Amino acid sequence: MSVTPEQQAEIDVQRTSPQNTLRAVSEGMERHLYSAIPILDHGFVRVVDYMGNDAAICQAARVSYGKGTKSVQNDEGLIRYLMRHWHSTPFEMCEIKLHVKLPVFVARQWIRHRTANVNEYSARYSILDREFYIPAREALAAQSEVNNQGRGELLSDEAAMQVLEILKGDAARCYDNYEQMISADGKEGLARELARMNLPANIYTQWYWKVDLHNLLHFLRLRADAHAQYEIRVYADAICKVVADWVPFAYKAFEDYRMGAVTMSAQMMSCLRRMLVGEEVTKENSGMSVREWREFEEVLAG
Ligand SMILES: Cc1cc2nc3c(=O)[nH]c(=O)nc-3n(C[C@H](O)[C@H](O)[C@H](O)COP(=O)(O)OP(=O)(O)OC[C@H]3O[C@@H](n4cnc5c(N)ncnc54)[C@H](O)[C@@H]3O)c2cc1C
Predict the structure, then answer these.
(1) pLDDT at 68
(2) How far apart are CA 41 and CA 7, in angstroms?
(3) Nearest CA, atom 25, ligand 1
(4) Using a CB cutoff of 8 Å and minimum separation of 24, what contacts does 169-178 make?
(5) Is the CB of 118 under 6 A from ligand 1?
């Protein structure tokens, strides 16, 4: 379960208390505000607050006194121009604050994105919940043979059952020991800040994560990519949907000029030009390494 009935009740109360405001709002984002989007077996993402909308990006780009909007078409064109030409600061004028519940090993990848503000649940102060990420059967795959950082074929049923048993057993045993160590039970227990050290990396943690739109899009470019680890990608995919509703013009430009775009090296461009004039270009005469040639072929295959 991603949120308890009590937590859902708090969210419902927040969602039924609208306020009038002079600030720019995004209708699409208002629909998401406060609600938890379930991710994995116990995780979620929910928007706690946001600032700005598509018009705010144009307002900043034009350094305008009023709304900054000229016409819808004009705004969309401007946003697409800004995205295409890496004029990124107007996108930094929009911000989002998320509440995320995620396994610790996912948090470790996520926290590498330094251009955000983070406040994590304190396991020195509070007791962690007995909630561990146990992958679904279809996420249990073997080590990839072509990519050292990825997964290959699905495990057999027998191997998958064994893995699940190990994961569940380890989680239960470690949490029992954690509880036993901190248990006051009339006697003095170990400090929470120390007892947590035997907990595995699939235990869930939570944080508030605030980031501007420019850096969020950078995060999404890397983590919603097909090469990103599945367990962080599902969070990024959910955030992509939120961003598409929040700033539809900016998100469309991001899809076209970042997610759907490719970067070609000078060698790749040279090979492409040779191909366009009918020359037969091969791995051997391309001047590229084996790996770069493979990536080039992937780009051409689409
Ligand atoms: C597929 C994949 C595999 C990865 N594998 C590994 C791995 O094996 N080991 C590992 O350690 N990490 C790994 N990473 C993490 C990666 O190296 C980056 O740390 C992470 O993606 C954050 O990117 P970032 O620094 O661009 O983002 P942010 O920290 O959000 O920074 C955004 C941008 O701000 C600028 N910036 C921020 N801080 C600084 C600074 N101090 N100095 C200069 N410029 C700065 C840079 O331009 C940066 O691109 C991996 C990431 C991906 C997506």
Answers:
(1) 58
(2) 17
(3) 113
(4) 170/200, 171/132, 171/134, 171/200, 171/202, 171/203, 174/198, 174/199, 174/200, 175/130, 175/132, 175/199, 175/203, 178/128
(5) no
Rounded Cα–Cα distance for residues 89 and 244 (Å) = 19
Which residue in the block uniquely carries the two structure tokens 């939120």? Answer: 242
Q: How far is the CA of 217 from the centre of ligand 1 (A)?
A: 13
| Beta carbon of 67 within 6 Å of any ligand 1 atom | no
Place of tokens 């270009």: 281
DSSP character at residue 64: -
pLDDT at 63: 86
- What are the tens digits of pLDDT across the range 210-246? 999 999 999 999 999 998 999 999 999 999 999 999 9
pLDDT, tens digit (0-9, with 9 covering 90-100), for 136-152:
988 888 777 666 667 77
Q: Which residues, in sequence order, are bridge partners of residue 132?
A: 203
